[in-house]
Amino acid sequence: MSSPSKRRDMDVMKLMMSDYAVEPINDGLNEFNVEFHGPKESLYEGGVWKVRVELPDAYPYKSPSIGFLNKIYHPNVDEMSGSVCLDVINQSWSPMFDLINVFEVFLPQLLLYPNPSDPLNGDAASLMMKDRKQYDEKVKEYCERYAKKENITSKQAEESDEEASDDDISDGRSASSDDVAGHADP
Question: Which residues pair with 36 in a beta bridge?
């Protein structure tokens, strides 16, 4: 490739032409969201996440920033920000890797083989080491609650989850865009 921008464009187009749903942000190829499905035969199987990808100007010589937008319970993913702790992305990235590697190899491996000794989510790491059965149940609970297709179609999955529970306890009237009571700005 003659320039990083051509390589970036090629990698993004390759990802778009694959089986992944890619949603560009701000009409550019530097930031986009990717629909990511949990790996088969894992605790995360059946889960669907929206993963934010930000490519630096020096991509592929510098690694992409990767983060889960809807919640995931995992020792190596920060529960609040969705940031991913993965050596191959954060420290040992190479221009030989591309975006397909991130979604077909690196993220599935991260979910299949969590590393509780290098956590971003200390609670998940601690629970995994102390009580694996309870950890497994919590992972499945998060998948059920936050990692469904409907959670990634709205821009703010967590807020829609809260609004849905608010509507469940309403006085029986159907919710409309005119109803504003009970929905204060954060």
Answer: 49
- 85 given a catalytic annotation: yes
Which candidate in 85, 138, 154, 158 is catalytic?
A: 85
91-124 burial, b if ≥16 CB within 10 A, otherwise e?
eebeeebbbebbbbebbbebbeebebeebbbeeb
What is the DSSP code string of the chain? ---HHHHHHHHHHHHHHTTS-EEESTTSSSEEEEEEEPPTTSTTTT-EEEEEEE--TTTTTSPPEEEESS----TTB-TTT-BB--HHHHTS--TT--HHHIIIIIHHHHHHS--TTS-SSHHHHHHHHH-HHHHHHHHHHHHHHH-SHHHHHSS-HHHHHHHHHHHHTS-SPPP-TT--TT----
When pLDDT is cut at 50, 70 and 90, the band that residue 166 belongs to is very low
Q: How confident is the model at residue 138 (pLDDT cuts 50, 70, 90)?
A: very high
The predicted structure's pLDDT at residue 180? 36
Structure-block tokens of residue 122: 């200390």
Mean pLDDT throughout 51-67? 94
